[in-house]
Amino acid sequence: MLNSVQRLVTRSRFDHVGVLVRDYAGTLFILEATQSNGVNTFNWTNYVEQKQYKEIERIVYRHMKYDRSGEATHKLGEFLKVSI
After folding, report:
1. Which of 31, 61, 66, 81 has its CA 20 to 30 A from that of 72?
2. In what order do the strands lie in the sheet with 38-43?
3. CB of 11 within 8 A of CB of 66?
4. What is the pLDDT of residue 45?
5. CA–CA gap between residue 71 and residue 75 (Å, rounded)
6. Eight-state DSSP code of residue 57
7. Distance CA 82, CA 79 (A)
8. How far apart are CA 64 and CA 70, in angstroms?
9. DSSP, res 13
10. By three-state DSSP, how is residue 30 classified?
11. Which parts of the chain have pLDDT scores under 70?
């Protein structure tokens, strides 16, 4: 319900953003901020196996372009350690 209101107010087709990130071991996670839990990660494999996407109307994938140098990746890792 709140998602519908948010889309109406913002005049957007979207109401949420998640970022797929891979850890150093290669495991894929969803990084997202939720109203109830704040910033968190969810294991992508578990997300799919548990069909947690059933409540989602649509998922749009876009490739995120950013500097993938060692420094940028290190900063992202540090942000994740502090945020989660």
Report:
1. 61
2. 18-22, 28-34, 38-43
3. no
4. 94
5. 6
6. S
7. 5
8. 16
9. S
10. strand
11. 1-3, 5-8, 83-84
The verdict on pTM exceeding 0.70 is no
What domain count does the chain have?
A: 1
The pLDDT value recorded for residue 1 is 56
Residue 80 tokens, joined: 């994740």
Bridge-based pairing state of the strands 18-22 and 28-34: antiparallel
Distance between CA atoms of residues 69 and 6, nearest Å? 36
- Give residue 46's Cα distance to chain centre: 14
* Residues of the domain holding 53: 2-83
Angle at alpha carbon of residue 51, lines to 48 and 56, rounded to 5°: 100
Task: Note the pLDDT of residue 44.
Answer: 92
